[in-house]
Amino acid sequence: MDTMRERFASTASRLLDEDPRLAVVLADIGADGFRRAAERHPDRVVNVGIREQLLVGVGGGLALAGLRPVLHTFASFLIERPFEQVKLDFGHQGTGGVLVSAGGSYDWPAGGFTHMAPGDVALLDTLDGWTVHVPGHPDEAEVLLRHACAAGDDRVYVRLSAQGNSRSLPVTGSGFTAVRHGRPGAPVVVAVGPLLDAVLAATSGLDATVLYAATVRPFDGAALRAAAGGTAEAVLVEPYLAGTSTAAASEALADVPHRILGLGTARAELRRYGTTAEHLAAHGLDPRSLRERITAFTGRAG
């Protein structure tokens, strides 16, 4: 099976053939995947080199000219390094585009902290009007990318990961999907993107409702509220900074007695390279750790 990044390159290349309004902007990263597309559309596949601020600036300029820009590089270089350009060239200018990242929170541990972006979604939360997709499978990545590219002039962030679930689920570009139902009053666990398999393994045999989120912004407070019922214990399991969505969940449950546990990447930096699996375990996001943390919070052992 191909990876999410490979699916992104093949899908975006086809979309360039289908939609004359689409343009892809790269900063060296991923350029090989668009070599043939660049030959067919040299005016709509732009590689600015290792200049991430320019990457976003060019994308914003293309949007002002009426095109639908798709920007791609590692998350740390797409959101964190050129954040001022994201804020001004898209938000302040009122333009739209599709930002597609790779690398996630720790997909390439050997790259060190410069290539990790656990705070990318939290950072985008400081800006208005961004839709955020976090697919958990290459098939979902393709559907969400197509949805993003066809979304008029909206501002969309698609967070790709080397991690993934064993199978895809139907995704529509909005809302959460219930994949496991507990009894009334059971805790609700929201699994985001590539962490669904780990959450399902961690909650096996537990009385819990599991919601799957491949689109996290806008936050589907209505689905959380419906699953929670009159009182709520909610656990959010996110592949980025722990607690990123707890405020949104708390707002959705504002008039319902509730407790919320936000699980995700810890704030403390891991200064050893290791492997992705070791990073998952160190952040408490492997199935065994998740089960321990969820049962300790809810007081309900399986």
From TrEMBL:
One of the Pfam families matching this protein, by short name: Transket_pyr
Domain of life of the source: Bacteria
Start and end residues of each Transketolase-like pyrimidine-binding domain: 2-168
SMART domains associated with the record: Transket_pyr (SM00861)
Name the record gives this protein: Transketolase
Taxonomic source organism: Streptomyces desertarenae
Organismal lineage: Bacteria, Bacillati, Actinomycetota, Actinomycetes, Kitasatosporales
